[in-house]
Amino acid sequence: MKNYDKYRIGYFAPPVNDYDWVKKDHIEKAPRWCSVDLRDGNQALIVPMNLEQKLEFFTYLCEIGFKEIEVGFPAASDTEFEFLRTLIEQDMIPDDVTVQVLTQSRRHIIEKTFESLIGAKHAVVHLYNSTSFAQRQQVFRKDKEEIIKIATDGAELMNEIAARYTDTDFEFEYSPESFTGTEPEFALEICNAVIDIWKPTPEHKVIINLPATVEMSMPHVFANQVEYMSKNLHSRDSVVLSLHPHNDRGTGVADAELGLLAGGDRIEGTLFGNGERTGNVDIVTLAMNMFTHGVDPGLDFSDMPRAVEMFEKFTDMTVDPRRPYCGSLVFAAFSGSHQDAIAKGMKWRAETDPSRWTVPYLPIDPHDVGRQYDGDVIRINSQSGKGGVAYIINRDHGFDIPKAMRAEVGYMMKGISDHTHEELSSDEIFDIFSREYVNFFSPLDITDATFSYFSSTKEEGENTVAVRMRVVIDGEVYNIDAEGNGRLDAVANGLKKTPYNFDYRFITYTEHAISTDSSSKAAAYICIADKDGHEYWGVGTQYDITLAAVNALVSALNRMNKKEHMVK
Ligand SMILES: CC(=O)SCCNC(=O)CCNC(=O)[C@H](O)C(C)(C)COP(=O)(O)OP(=O)(O)OC[C@H]1O[C@@H](n2cnc3c(N)ncnc32)[C@H](O)[C@@H]1OP(=O)(O)O
Ligand SMILES: CC(C)C(=O)C(=O)O
């Protein structure tokens, strides 16, 4: 690809290279979460949300469990200002939720921001200015001292104004915006200068937020930068170290996770990663990643379809079908070997320890996020196998197809899907199965069969079963009496009394009650072979198991006839 030499690495490695975060292999507890959907997410929308939408979204974020919500940039527009005023004046902010607002480090903007907060019980005021090499050079055209002064002037002004609004419990936050393009030593210097002005205590901490404003490096470099800051910030025990990853390289979640290992205490992000350009870090994925490691994320995504619905409604954007934990296809297994393993894993779980989730190929139980096994997990197309087809027919329709029959049914279904180039639904699969195998009564039909038993209950005893049956073949009726050493043998002997030559060999038989049918029918499966050794399965159902077996035999014989092996 041309023009690659136009680009250079734009980040700066910290001065040390021995890091503790690499020694950790998992996140032990959930961070403090801060939703920035209503600010960073909103500022990136084609049409930012209106007041009503923001109010509804705010209520939903509280429902999910967010305790910190950056509600906007009140100095940006009337809508932003009005939104905050409405939340405060209509007492819509739950006591355990803190609203956060963003401000540039400019006097009139800071003043307007504080004005918007009058009457709030507690609030985070979030001050930022750009610190990166590129922004200092091109946007602000200021040296490091002048950039530090922007931050410290704003920090001092916040101290001064906050002292006038004593009814509100303020928490201050500072972001060296464009941190990832900033020399770490300089980011540290500016953050420490702000901390020294705010003079936090362990009881009244400040938030230092490290944004990957533009994600520029591999995640481990970001983690190194975070750890360097965490280990060198002034009054570390009085600082909440917050991270605000974006996703320009597609690794925002990795930045956040490694950043937490490296000392981050708090995450700013959005639902499904909405936000500037490629978005903010996706809090849903992050939270669910913790969940799958047995850590309570402190946010409730147990109704994920609703989360998707709300998100799409507020942002007018769509959630990708492959998006982790929430996309429409993330639980779907079309391929045969995956289906086989999932079906066996589900069975194992049911038989061993249903309280644990270890099913192969499914990192979480779909039920935990409000999804279903039916329709969501095992789905049939030309890549599917016998296990998946048998699983669906059993799960949804109660037919436990014998192992020896599964390959034939599986290949039939995948062949149909291959030709139509379409997925087969559970109902379509059952329809094909029923049409092909079950109670197949033409041209042969046995419309009545009454059995009398003269049998010993002992294995070695003599069994005689007599049958009186009405046989219809191609419209001709035959009333027949016959005997045999079992019911199927009696029926087979009876069929020999018709003018037709039923030339077949019995291979196998199984039966069971149909588990999902409330009318408690039975299903019987019979396999016969013709004189050339070709095998034919037939399935019969009836309330009476004996008659189900007769129906299975009739179905198998008719399927054999279909292949022109039943000759007169
Ligand atoms: C990475 C982020 O997401 S940061 C947040 C970004 N979000 C937004 O910008 C959304 C809301 N913003 C707005 O509505 C507007 O930008 C406002 C109302 C805040 C300010 O509007 P305006 O004053 O008209 O203009 P604008 O934002 O372009 O201001 C640029 C000026 O502010 C300066 N500036 C920009 N950011 C900051 C900052 N954080 N602190 C101090 N000065 C800043 C610029 O250097 C420039 O100065 P100049 O006029 O001397 O050249
Ligand atoms: C204001 C800051 C935190 C920001 O949104 C960013 O840098 O992405």
Key phrases:
Double Stranded RNA Binding Domain; binds acetyl coenzyme *A; 2-isopropylmalate synthase; branched-chain amino acid biosynthesis; eight-stranded parallel β-barrel; TIM Barrel; 14 strands; 568 residues; binds 3-methyl-2-oxobutanoic acid; alpha/beta; LeuA-like_post-cat; transferase
Question: What would you say about this model in short?
Answer:
It is found in: Cytoplasm. This protein has helices at residues 37-43, 51-64, 78-89, 107-116, 133-140, 144-162, 184-198, 219-232, 252-261, 283-291, 304-315, 336-351, 386-397, 403-420, 426-437, 487-495, 545-562, and strands at residues 32-35, 68-72, 98-104, 122-130, 169-177, 206-212, 239-245, 266-269, 444-455, 463-473, 476-484, 504-513, 522-530, 535-542. It is an alpha/beta fold and 568 residues long.
Major sheet: order of its strands? 1-2-3-4-5-6-7-8
Class of the largest domain in CATH?
A: Alpha Beta
CATH superfamily of the largest domain: Aldolase class I
**What's the mean pLDDT score?**
95
How many helices in DSSP terms?
17
Provide the CATH topology of the largest domain. Answer: TIM Barrel
Structural class: alpha/beta
User: Structurally, how many domains make up the residues?
Assistant: 3
Corresponding CATH architecture of the largest domain: Alpha-Beta Barrel
Shape: elongated
Percent of residues in helices: 25-40%
| Regions with little confidence, pLDDT below 50 for 5+ residues | none
Keywords: Amino-acid biosynthesis, Branched-chain amino acid biosynthesis, Cytoplasm, Leucine biosynthesis, Magnesium, Metal-binding, Transferase
GO cellular component, one term: cytoplasm
Protein name: 2-isopropylmalate synthase
Binding site for Mg(2+): 40, 244, 246, 280
